[in-house]
Amino acid sequence: MIKLVALEKSFGTNRVLRGLNLEIKDAEILTIIGGSGCGKSVTLKLMVGILRPDSGEIYIDGEKIDYDDRQKLLAIQEKFGYLFQGAALFDSLTVGENVAFGLRNLRKLSETEIQRRVSEVLGMVGLSGIENLKPAELSGGMKKRVGLARAIAYQPRYILYDEPTTGLDPIMADIISDLMIKLQRDLKVTSIVVTHDMKMAYKISDRIAMLYEGRIVAEGTPEQIKNTQDPLVRQFIEGRADGPITISLNHTGEILQ
Amino acid sequence: MTKYWKKFIISVGEISELIAETFYWIFSGQIDRRNTREQMYETGWRSLPVIFLTAIFTGMVLALETGSSTISVFSEPVYLGTIVAFSMIKELAPVLTSVVIAGRVGAAIAAEIGTMKVTEQLDALSTLGTDPIKYLAVPRFIGVISMVPFLVLFADAVGVIGGLLVSVYKWEIPITTYWEDAFSYMYLEDFFHGLIKSVFFALIIVAVSCYKGFSCEGGAEGVGKATTSAVMISMVLILVSDYFITSALVLLGIG
Asked: What are the residue ranges in chain B where pLDDT is below 70?
């Protein structure tokens, strides 16, 4: 279980998170929706300790993240698999070495066991036999799937997905959604997904939470979110330009309505 | 103006922290062997051709200039070996080698780490149980700091030979005279003088370039800026610190 308590995080003068509270139950898929730049990715990075909150606390399985204790932080990071927005594959390494990277650092396995696990997870994402290709030779969808294979290779308890379908065609997006549901069912992991792709959010989520102005403003099952009367949520899920959510369209931050 | 000073002081703090953390990993013995070998090969072996060209022409032009200048004063070319060898070994080989390495290796370091930063690969390293400084900075520090002094020795030799070629074929000085001029006044300290300087320059190059890479922000443009400023800052710091390090070494009686 993950518990985020009163998280605040600013970058310069930009207050991204302003007291975010959220609880993630074991073995569920929780989707966080919200506009671009509202702090969704920042929330994920806070959970794994890549970023440090300005204030607030994060509990992973009841244990509070301690940023000064390197060993403990590493032990917490081991529980997470992270699929980055652009997959973030290491371009100097082959696909096989990429997938094996976490295994080598986090698990004590023999070379044959590592190779077996690498081909196993690549098989799970439908990309058997591409171990020797370089990331530059892959399409966007393949990169995402290799990133996913790398994230699940060392059997983390939690998988974080940062915009897993952004930049993919609708068919590949659906394939990725199916893959996420399948992984959830087979591996019994907890998934936290950040997206603004509502189609996928409805399809995969057990619960959906909406992030707006640095706080969670709505939470519920996909059905509840779909039928909510909350004008903020309605505007977002229907994708309308007019409504309570205002977006600044020019560099001065002036609101054009 | 105070804003810039504040930024400058923060950068100095961060770069010191980076250096301290890198040396912590090095002295705790947690070194990624494969990456370190690759970096040593890249900095050392692959820089030889450009260092060769730089050093041989510098040696040649020194002999040419010294010859024509001494002719106008003494009516014959004298002390060519002395001037070429001292200039190369104490000053030009360390400085020119470092400037070339800043352009070749420093730029590559800043661009590579910067690209990894903006594409979230540094974050990915952290989530996969690897400290980015341990994985990226440590091999580069070892690669650059260990290889630059060897490159300087190579440049010393090539530069002196370049000077010899011009002295013998252009000014028709006997080889033995050139060698005697070059080395009868030279002590081992003069070599150390150049080598000690080059170690400082190497540290400047690798620390600035790694720092610029790690603190890179803002996509392709950010990577471009990080790379340019890594090279520019390294070069300026090399040339400025050269004067002060040289004064200190002279004061200590090394060269």
From this structure: none
